[in-house]
Design brief:
Keywords: Signal, Transport. InterPro entries: Bact_solute-bind_prot3, Solute-binding_3/MltF_N. Belongs to the bacterial solute-binding protein 3 family. With 298 residues, the protein is α/β, with parallel strands linked by helices. It has two domains: 30-130 and 231-292, 3-Layer(aba) Sandwich (D-Maltodextrin-Binding Protein, domain 2); 133-228, 3-Layer(aba) Sandwich (D-Maltodextrin-Binding Protein, domain 2), CATH 3.40.190. Helix content is 44%, strand content 22%. The protein contains eleven helices and 14 strands. Strands 1, 5, 6, 7, 8 and 14 form a six-stranded mixed beta sheet that branches. A five-stranded mixed beta sheet has the order 11-10-12-9-13, with helices on both faces. A three-stranded antiparallel beta sheet has the order 2-3-4. A hairpin with a 5-residue loop joins strand 3 and strand 4 (61-62). Helix 3 crosses helix 9 (241-256).
């Protein structure tokens, strides 16, 4: 009788374990359920947001934001109990918010500013980088500040906060700017090189990245004061509490393990695959943000 009782108890415990596991699977919702069912996570990447999200010479998405997103996919796989593949989806500055909202991509991994206007439509991870709008000009240019742009043609990238910043700046200071809207950062840089405008306005780190990737530091300069404040984050769908909790926990773990710091060093202080380094030390603002992730939430 005792043997039967032990076997019976073991069977009960085993069945309860299966029930708990099945219950956990049933409880999955939103993006995590989608990932478990499909076995994949759709990542939106940018083609020329150097060094955050861009294409290698082999046509593969690489960069600082891409590295962080790969870690998030690993964490999602652990959460749903299966290895997840990545389905790469190209997005632009104009299409990226719609792609997240519609479910076309699950994580947008680029150089996207988190602000109140965008937070009405999508959710953001903790801050991954802090940047701001500056101007790129040719080195023989007389432009040293936005105040030197009166009546000039200035390049911006479609769908960026920089475009809005420059329109507001032009109106506020009566600069009468003619904004030339490029389809992406690479296009804007090409147009600046072809003298289609006197300056290209976007986040300073993206300007440094373009110069490094094109080995053009000797021909161009990044000038002027910061014209905006732009904290970057990884985008995902709004209202997805389980994914938001996983993203937040993953960032805290990456901060504790120094993975965020090491990723920064790889993409901003060491040589890029092109052989050139941006050589941009971490700002005091980003250092403070990463340190704050070490504090346990109340």
């Amino acid at each position: 009788m005792r043997i039967l009782s032990v076997r019976y108890l073991a069977a009960v415990v085993l069945s309860l374990g299966f029930a708990v596991q099945a219950g956990a699977q049933v409880l999955l919702t939103g993006t995590l359920k989608k990932a478990r069912d499909s076995g994949a996570v759709a990542i939106g990447y940018r083609a020329s947001s150097i060094p955050f999200s861009y294409l290698s010479t082999r046509g593969e998405p690489i960069g600082y934001a891409i590295e962080i997103c790969r870690a998030l996919v690993d964490a999602m796989g652990e959460e749903v109990g299966r290895t997840l593949r990545i389905d790469w989806v190209p997005v632009t500055a104009e299409s990226r918010l719609d792609a997240v909202e519609s479910g076309k991509v699950d994580l947008e991994c680029g150089s996207t500013t988190s602000n109140l206007e965008r937070q009405k439509r999508v959710a953001f991870s903790p801050t991954t980088f802090v940047s701001g709008t500056k101007l790129m000009v040719k080195k023989d240019s007389s432009i040293a500040s936005f105040r030197d742009l009166l009546g000039k043609r200035v390049l911006v990238t479609a769908g960026t906060t920089n475009e809005k910043t420059m329109r507001e700046l032009s109106e506020k200071f009566r600069l009468n700017l003619t904004l030339v809207v490029a389809r992406d950062h690479a296009d804007a840089f090409a147009q600046l090189a072809a003298d289609q405008a006197v300056a290209f306005a976007t986040d300073d780190v993206l300007l440094y990245g373009l110069l490094a990737e094109n080995k053009a530091q000797g021909s161009y300069a990044v000038v002027g004061e910061f014209l905006s404040y732009d904290p970057y984050g990884i985008m995902f769908r709004k209202g997805d509490a389980p994914l938001a909790s996983l993203v937040d926990a993953s960032f805290r773990r990456m901060a504790e393990d120094r993975d965020l710091e090491r990723a920064y060093e790889r993409w901003f202080l060491r040589r890029l695959p092109s052989g050139i380094s941006i050589n941009l030390p971490m700002s005091p603002q980003l250092t403070t943000i990463f340190q704050s992730l070490l504090q346990k939430p109340e």
